[in-house]
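note to self — DONT lose this again. spent like an hour looking for the file last time. sequence + predicted structure for the chain T wanted, 95 res
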Amino acid sequence: MNHGENNITIVDEEGNEQLCEVLFTFDSEEFGKSYVLYYPIGADDDDEEIEIHASSFTPNENNEDGELMPIETDEEWDLIEEMLNTFMDEQDEEE
């Protein structure tokens, strides 16, 4: 995972790179992992619903972002969905 300020470059299964914007990150003591929620840049240019992706990662020794890994359990997905809903509610309150 390469990153800029709020962007990361994701490489898919076919080796294609896609620039994505980070929505937010959070840590979970329960699972001992960090999570990042992101979406492809350009996805917000139209009126369609944005597909938000989520991955787990473990920061390396220099506290830089490590490799993205898939979410493995339903419990993790439940936590991510709860965090996303909280984030979206907070965004709605600011508008």
